[in-house]
Amino acid sequence: MSDSHPPYGGQQPDPNAAPWGTPPGSPVGPPGSPVAPAGYPSPYGAPVPPPPSYGPQPTKSSNKGLWLGLGIGAAVMAVLVACGGVIGFFVLAGDDEGEPVAGQRSEAPVVPTDAPSIVPPAEQQPDNNNAVTARNSSDMSAVCEGSPILNAAPYTGAKGTKVYTFANSPERPESWLSKSVGFDKQYYAKTSEWASVSVVGCLTFEQGSEGTPRKCQYKDRDDKQVTVDYVSSRYTLTFYAARTGEKIGEGGRVNAPAVRCPSFISYNKETMRAYAQPDSGAIELALDKFTS
Q1: With CB atoms 3.0 to 4.6 Å apart as the test, which of 3, 64, 198, 278 could cross-link to 153 if both were Cys?
Q2: Residue 272 lies in a domain
Q3: Per the structure, how many domains does the chain have?
Q4: Is 234 exposed, middle or buried, given 0-12, 13-18 or 19+ CB atoms closer than 10 A?
Q5: Residue 155 lies in domain
Q6: Within 13 Å, how many C-alpha atoms sit on residue 104's CB side?
Q7: Residues annotated as region Disordered (predicted)?
Q8: CA-CA distances (angstroms) from residue 129 to 132, 147, 248?
Q9: pLDDT digits (tens, 9 = 90+) for 225-267
């Protein structure tokens, strides 16, 4: 038996090879892809043309934006010209009126005042190291302790002068309380008018002048019944010039009667005593006489 050879020296085909193999040079893709990439031959023998390219669409030119911009610019110029004319008119008008320009400061008119100064000039101050400057009506009581008031009204005479009166406490002689009388009289001064006062009347308690106490019954804060000795006494009234502290008159003796028990009373819890106040009627008569 002789061996068989392919004719013309060709290679014998492989009986196990698939009849539809992938041609040489073809890209490897997933099975079942019927179309090969562009530029490569199709397995069916016809080459696949490349996909067409799509360029940008040409835009249409328009003059609408140009005309709109020119219109807006013209309107703005018209407004600026009009505003410039108005501003120029007001500037010229302002020059005619003579108004102060920016940066100038107009001076406010000075209003004179009759309010007394707090501290008088040095030449008017008394030669007293205990002289004080008052800040309210209560400070005027310092005159009764020998301290002149530097900013008190000057004393020019008793007639028509303003007077404050103070009385000390029998149990605390250094404590002075105001005693206001004669509210409708010319010598009366309100607490806010202390700077107009030129005279201070001092009611000084006379030691040893106490009378027989009156027994008065009251209830304390605990609603307990208490007995208070209500004591009468006497005071001496003396007038001083407020600014200099100089003694300028005597008001005489003023009683502090304990005729009846007052409705309300302030008493010493240790001594169970309370002192009657100087008689307001007697003080008023003394002031009337002094200032008349």
Answers
A1: 198
A2: no
A3: 1
A4: buried
A5: 122-208+233-256+278-291
A6: 7
A7: 1-61
A8: 9, 8, 21
A9: 999 999 999 999 999 999 999 999 999 999 999 999 999 899 9
